[in-house]
Amino acid sequence: QVQLVESGGGLVQAGGSLRLSCAASGLTFSKYPMGWFRQAPGKEREFVAAISWSGGRISYGDSVKGRFTISRDNAKNTMYLQMNSLKPEDTAVYYCAARSIVYSGRSSMPRDYDYWGQGTQVTVSS
Question: What angle do CA 110, 116, 120 make, to 5 degrees?
Answer without folding.
Answer: 105
